[in-house]
UniProtKB/TrEMBL annotation:
Keyword Lyase attached: yes
Coiled coil: none
SUPFAM superfamilies linked to this entry: Phosphoenolpyruvate/pyruvate domain (SSF51621)
Keywords tagged on the record: Lyase
Xref: Pfam families: PEP_mutase
Keyword Ribonucleoprotein appears in the UniProt entry: no
The protein's name in its UniProt record: Isocitrate lyase/phosphoenolpyruvate mutase family protein
Domain of life where this protein originates: Bacteria
Gene Ontology MF terms in the entry: lyase activity
């Protein structure tokens, strides 16, 4: 039985679903024990934990196995998986693999791994529509819009809104303009889309409280927690290397 309805219901503009993205069973357990209502993976964090670079360099079987471990540690909480552009899987197989891994939602991005080239929005909308058709209501689709990540000039908000509307019409539940951080732009995009919007939480950007005030429905931390955890681990190891007590 899918947790998609519960996950979908957590996307409330102004009362956002906050997701400290995880990378393994231990971090999944920590998020669950902290009392969060859902768990999300970060493809970059999972990839680095498994010894790969981000950008669909992780074999799909290993990525899905990692999502399954996260789901197992979630102990019934909804899990949404960052699966980049789907690792080359056909929509029906992608949906099937996500279900087998225990995921009730997924992120799907609209740029090509490696090159950063934006996918034609009509083609991306068709892909999302096929995923929706294969999943029915049993999957929460978070459609990532990468125009701010791979900015190449022009009216970024106009393009982000146009892409977001296409993706929502194709069946996406939420739109994720990753790296959008300017408060006025966030507020405008939320207003123009009139649908759940996911914003990436980054250093120097708006606070969680401020993002809620701007009408955001979902807040992701991406690979930020994993990067901070790794940096802390490296400092501990350096202490040991210098012959000092790391604790």
């Amino acid at each position: 039985m899918t947790n998609a309805p519960a996950l979908r219901a957590l996307h409330v503009p102004g009362t956002p679903l906050v997701l400290p993205n995880v990378w393994d069973a231990a971090s999944s357990r920590a998020v669950r024990q902290a009392g969060f209502p859902a768990i999300a993976t970060s493809s970059a964090a999972v990839a680095h934990a498994l010894g790969y670079d981000d950008g669909e360099r992780t074999p799909v079987a290993e990525m899905m196995a990692a999502v399954a471990r996260v789901s197992r540690a979630a102990e019934g909480l909804p899990v949404t998986a960052d699966v980049e552009r789907g690792y080359g899987l056909k929509p029906a197989e992608l949906v099937e693999r996500l279900a087998e891994a225990g995921a009730s939602g997924c992120n799907l991005e609209d740029s090509l791994p490696g090159s950063g080239d934006l996918v034609d929005p009509a083609a991306q909308a068709d892909f999302l529509a096929e995923v929706r058709a294969a999943a029915g209501d049993a999957l929460v689709i978070n459609a990532r819009v990468d125009v701010y990540l791979h900015a190449r000039g022009g009216d970024l908000r106009r393009e982000a809104v146009a892409r977001g509307r296409r993706y929502l019409e194709a069946g996406a539940d939420c739109v994720y303009p990753i790296l959008l951080a300017a408060e006025d732009e966030i507020a405008a995009l939320v207003s123009e889309l009139d649908a759940p919007v996911n914003v990436y939480f980054g250093a120097g950007g708006p606070s969680v409280q401020r993002l809620a005030e701007l009408g955001v429905a979902r807040i992701s931390f991406g690979s930020g927690l994993h990067q901070a955890s790794q940096a802390f681990t490296e400092r501990l190891i350096a202490e040991v290397r210098e012959g000092r007590d790391p604790f």
